[in-house]
Amino acid sequence: MDCFHLHILGCGSALPTKRHYPTAQIVHLRGKLFMIDCGEGSQLQFRQTGLNYNRIGDIFISHLHGDHCFGLLGMISTMGLLGRTAPLRIHARPELEELMQPHLDYFCRDLPYRVEFVSFDPDKHSLVYEDRSLEVYCFPLKHRVKSAGFLFREKARQRHIIKEMMDFYGIPLKEIPAIKEGADFVDSEGRLISNSRLTRPPKAPLSYAFCSDTAYDENIIKYIKGVDLLYYEATFGDDLAELAETTMHSTASQAAGIAHKAKVGQLVIGHYSARYTNEEILLQQARAVFPNTELADEGKRFDVAAVAENNK
Predict the structure, then answer these.
(1) pTM for the whole structure
(2) How is 14-42 classified by DSSP, letter by letter?
């Protein structure tokens, strides 16, 4: 089974506590590491994962509130100290480069690698990253500043060749690429051998969506419909629903409502307000609406493939 894991580095909100760090995550997909947000303390928490700094190729910043990006400069500096040479791409709204460049010029002027800023429009749904096996999309959230969510979706895989059937029909090697793409085969006598006899279907593509910070907004549903795993902020409980509306955040019940309407496989809630010393009340409120909900916590890992398998 291919690796598709979510590592929680931080799941608190703006005010740091002894229990939680500000928002930061690692998506580990087939040997590549992608970072989502980089609050203070991210690199310390990353050390706990045992993963390799140099495998982080891309960092996605949801919005320009400090609890989501104040850890960037330290992370960049540490990567330089560890001898990184590969470029690091930071995907964010255009203003981040303008804000960070003076600090990079002063504190990180001798970096042995390039920091490349890749801008996107947080008001639009668009493709922001692509490789041979993965697509990452941004989509607009509803917050006090321009904010974006991210969808990580595997590309559809090719069909699996059944070697015994290929040998039985004597199919040339040059035909394999087309057959993997779904083509039938016609032999030298004009007989058609259907693709279903020659191949097995691939596994369904896996998907993960990140939504933080955002007020309750059903417009989000169309972007995250049917994802295997959803991380959604649950800053407040029902007791502070009015404060959630005022600050443009969500309650645990609202997060669960979005998960239910989007028909996701599993919900993970986080971005907890420092007012809560025990998040069990948030978990109970979310599970009352969407039972397959889990709490985020520093050091916790979620296996997206296992979630998908359990929800078949």
Answers:
(1) 0.91
(2) SS--SS-PSSEEEEEETTEEEEEEE-TTH
Which domain covers residue 187, as residue numbers?
160-200
Q: What is the mean pLDDT of the chain?
A: 94
Asked whether residue 170 falls in the same domain as residue 30, the answer is no
Q: Which of 140-154, 165-179, 201-215, 288-302 has the lowest mean pLDDT?
A: 165-179
Strands (E), 131-221: 134-140, 148-154, 160-161, 185-186, 192-193, 199-200, 207-211
Cα separation of 207 and 155, whole Å? 10
Q: Are residues 26 and 166 in the same domain?
A: no
Please state whether the peptide bond connecting residue 213 to the residue before it is cis, i.e. omega within 30 degrees of 0.
yes
Reply yes or no on whether 67 is catalytic.
Answer: yes
pLDDT band at 201 (very low <50, low <70, confident <90, very high): confident
User: Residue 142's domain is classified under what CATH number?
Assistant: 3.60.15.10
Domain count across the chain: 2
Residue from 37, 58, 67, 228 carrying the catalytic annotation: 67
Same domain, 175 and 107: no
Question: Is 261 within 8 Å of 221 (Cβ atoms)?
Answer: yes
Residue type, 46: F
Same domain? 242 vs 189: no
The upper half-sphere exposure of residue 70, i.e. CA atoms within 13 Å in the direction of its Cβ, equals 14
- 223 lies in the same domain as 167: no
